[in-house]
Amino acid sequence: MATTILVARLRTTRRRRTSLVLGVVLLAVVALATLALTLGAAGVSPGRALAAVVGAGSPTDVFVVQRLRLPRVLAALLAGTAFALAGALFQSTLRNPLASPDILGVSTGASLGAVWALLGLGASGVVVAAWAFGGALAAAAAIWLLAWRRGLHSIRFVLVGVGVSYVCGALLSWLLARAEVREAQTALLWTIGSVADVRDTPLAVLAIGVGVLAVVAAAISRTQRALSLGDDHAAALGVRVDRARVAALLVAVGLVAVATSAAGPVAFVALVSPAIARRLLDDGGADLAVSAAIGALLVLAADVLGQHALPGMTVPAGVVTGLVGAPYLLWLLSGRSDRRSSPQ
Amino acid sequence: MSAPASEPATALRAEGVRLGYDGRTVIDGLTLDLPAGRVTAIVGPNACGKSTLLKGMARLLPLEAGRVLLGGRDVAAMPRRELARLLGVLPQSSIAPDGVRVAELVARGRYPHQGWFGRRSSTDDAVVARALESTGVADLAERPVAELSGGQRQRVWIAMVLAQQTDVVLLDEPTTYLDVAHQVDLLDLLATQNEERGTTVVMVLHELNLAARYADHLVVMARGSVVAEGAPGDVLTEDAVRGAFGLEARVVPDPISGTPLVVPVGRTRRQS
Fold it and tell me: A93, A227 in Cβ contact below 8 A?
């Protein structure tokens, strides 16, 4: 009886901790979003900014907030959510904390698609975004086909993914090296990731895509937790392993494709967000909602920092996340090897 | 549960099964009945196909031919989730996700009993608690699995399988990597589970003497076939050991349990 009470107590403690972490992160998101609406050349106080969101206040305020700043904030939040969810799905499905779309070449595939559309086809606007989407899907399909051998094996998927990433990167460099300087500069933005110019139709597509895929992700999250025990254990618990993994990876690839076609590959968000969620929750799982909220917060923070931290200079969000993410990756790698060398 | 004198019912039956990996056949045309409510140990030399057979019976490896019957029903035709409510499996290598805690891991055994949204109920808590208690890991409930010793960790995984509340439990070499004290400890745990709840226990084991002591029914495999099966006292003879393992050995009564004790002869270090 005492043990039943203990087990029940542990369960509620864990649920409360998840709710608490989620609440705090969402609060930070709201605060930072409000700040982002007020910062900039045209000074707008928080009260006026929030009023302008719903269309109240002076026409200038409404224009600055609704046309310039709000789309950017929303794009940052949506892209962050998408990358973080994709990372969490990749990592739990492949049972590898290094598995993320930036490392597996899915994001690089999107960059390649966009740059090819810009430089090779002379396209612009929505066509470029569509090519980015196609590039992500093509990279994922290539990894899939090369890694599939009577089922999908995690390690082979990761290794093939790293290979595909290098191939896409090489083609990307070649395209950029051949291009005119000015063209190459526009194209370079697609290799970095920025939420500066996402509005109207692309923003609406991003919102709908992320919304739909997030619902699907939530629906399969329970199976994901079983899958994180390993194939045999998951099958023994009644999971159809191959089907569950294919579903999760399809959703993850869809999220990356939608997000990169709008904002480009914002580096490291997919890798880092679930890891931070795991650390904050401290129960062995990266809760999808918490990961998503952290991803949203990270991209928004990176964009705010990139815009306002250095006077007279703006830095795309993807550069900021890369600068912060790379040291984290090194730290993760060193930490992992320490743990592995410890006695089992 | 007292064992009836007559032939016990069959819990799990493999019927003419063929199993293999990537086109390489390991087992061909094997038929085997595993008695209900008993402890069965499957022994045999390395690569004889004993783990492969276990995986095939647990539907972790697809059958290339034949069928497996659980309580008379074809396992392949059952929905996976339903099968997971009837048959628990502990695969050979178990790696807990980073940072997961004992109670949380054991609670994952409730997966096949939970609905679409998977909210854990108070029934689940009670089942998890019982699994923790019967495996003696209740006081570790809050600890991360990764911090435990090998013996404790294996108990936790068994607790997870017990939380599935199945009448039949298959275990693939549950005592590997454990020292002898923890091996005995773990087998006592499984024997108790069998005696108190009537759970059918089927395990692949390496250690012949412990298999002979703890099994009601011993299955000896070699080269993908069953070469002998029955009560350990009848099955584990000097001839059987020579035939299956290619090992010259004396078989004497175990001074504790009276079951066969295999003493290898070897080529050196004999008493003059």
Answer: yes
B23 touches chain A (CB under 8 A): no
CA nearest neighbour of A279 among A312, A324, A328: A328
**Which of A230, A206, A110 is closest to A164 using CA atoms?**
A110
CA angle B92, B95, B97 (to 5 degrees): 150
User: For residue A66, what are its two tokens?
Assistant: 């609704």
| Residues A223, A225: Cα–Cα separation, whole Å | 5
CA distance A326 to A268: 8
Token code pair at residue B50? 């004993």
Q: Which residue of A has its CA nearest to B132?
A: A3
Chain A residues lying within 8 Å of B112, measured CB to CB = 237-238
Nearest C-alpha neighbor of B66 from the set B230, B224, B243: B224
Quick one: how far is CA B237 from the chain centroid? Answer: 23
Q: Which value does ipTM take for this structure?
A: 0.89
Within an 8 Å CB–CB cutoff, is residue B24 touching chain A?
A: no
Min Cα separation A214/chain B (Å): 15
Instruction: Give the distance from residue A219's alpha carbon to the nearest chain B alpha carbon, in angstroms.
Output: 8
Q: Which of B24, B64, B81, B108 to mutate to test the interface with A (most CBs of A within 10 A)?
A: B108
Tokens 């939040």 label which residue? A77
Q: Measured between beta carbons, which residues in chain A are less than 8 angstroms from residue B156?
A: none
Tell how strand B87-90 and strand B73-74 pair up: unpaired
| CB < 8 Å to B164, chain A | 237
- Answer for the pair B39, B216: CB distance below 8 angstroms, yes or no: yes
- Please say whether the beta carbons of B40 and B215 come within 8 A: yes
Task: List, for residues A206-240, the tens digit of each pLDDT value.
Answer: 999 999 999 999 999 888 888 888 889 999 999 99
Whole-number mean pLDDT of chain A? 87
Q: Which of B81, B114, B128, B178 to mutate to test the interface with A (most CBs of A within 10 A)?
A: B128
Residue type, A9: R
Starting at the edge strand found earlier in the chain, the sheet holding B24-35 runs B24-35, B10-21, B65-70, B73-74
Answer yes or no: do B60 and A229 touch at CB < 8 A.
no
Tokens of residue B72, six digits: 């008379």
**DSSP character for B99?**
T
Contact at CB, A237 and B112, closer than 8 angstroms? yes
CB of B217 closer than 8 Å to CB of B231: yes
Whole-model pTM over 0.80: yes
